[in-house]
Amino acid sequence: MKIIIPMAGRGTRLRPHTLTVPKPLIPVAGKPIIQRLVEDLSSSYHGSIEEIAYVVGDFGIEVEKELIAIAERLGAKGKLYHQDKALGVGHAIACASDSLNGKCIVAFADTLIKADFKFNDLEDGVIWTQKVEDPSSFGVIKLDMEGYIIDMVEKPATFVSDLAIVGIYYFREGEKLRDALHHIITNNIREKNEYQLTTALAHLKNQGARFRTGQIEEWLDCGTKENILHSNARMLEIHQEQKLIAATALVENSVIIPPCFIGENAVIRNSVIGPHVSVGHHSKVESTIISNSIVQNHAHLKNAVLESSLIGNASRYEGSRYALDLGDFSNFSKR
Known about the structure:
20% of the residues lie in helices and 30% in strands. The protein is built from six helices and 26 strands. The strands form seven sheets. The chain has a seven-stranded mixed sheet, sandwiched between helices. Strands 14-17-20-23-26 form a five-stranded parallel sheet, with no helix packed on it. The chain has a four-stranded parallel sheet with strand order 15-18-21-24, with no helix packed on it. Helix 4 (174-186) crosses helix 5. It is elongated and about 75 Å long. The protein starts with a strand and ends in a 17-residue tail after the last strand.
């Protein structure tokens, strides 16, 4: 099995964090989003993962080395492809055409899942979905009586289905997907001026391919700051039975309200941390109260009261302490 991950987008909704770090490398519960994604896929699949192919933008050599290392730690070969122009997800996947052969999983880089990821790999393809309350913001599918997909509709204005596509796909013959993508690009078949994966899927369906649907327990989107913080909280809850506080972390005169992740060589002093806080490697938190937040690596917080915050790598924030004289019947609010 090969895993193809299109991740060349710049993550503009997460700026300023994505000005220096690609969105898939932002940590969630102590691990980069992309690492959690491939670990979950590889651990849930009953077979072996031979290759993980990333479609990237101009992220720099250090990011590319980290991506290759993530693949190699799972016993797979890492491969890089570059998308020079933002021409849609279908175009991004087509950039990895050399890897589109045999059994393939295509997974979007801003998606985390909680699922028993079992499926029949003899099917032509599988598209994973989850029921949602408001399907108008998602691509959705319709099924026939046998459970095969008969239609895919992007962000329907009227109700079509409540089964939303979560961004994970399986193809038994990756070369057929490669040919379908080549067809839509060669014939300049675009939607909203981009080459879409759903267009290629419709082309495959018209050629006789039959797609099943796979169900997941929980879908965690990581496209915005609020979603990343929610995903961090859920991942901490899901993995709270694991050892989340590094042995090299120093915690002095502090309260840790679980679940929290404390990274290697982090220092927590005179603080209250949690719940749902991840503190990155080599970061220092002093005289601070913080909840529902992510502090990335080599950051330093002092005299802060924070919630629902995302603190970047090597950032420093120092708040102020106040002496307050407040008389009877006073009303004071500081925001």
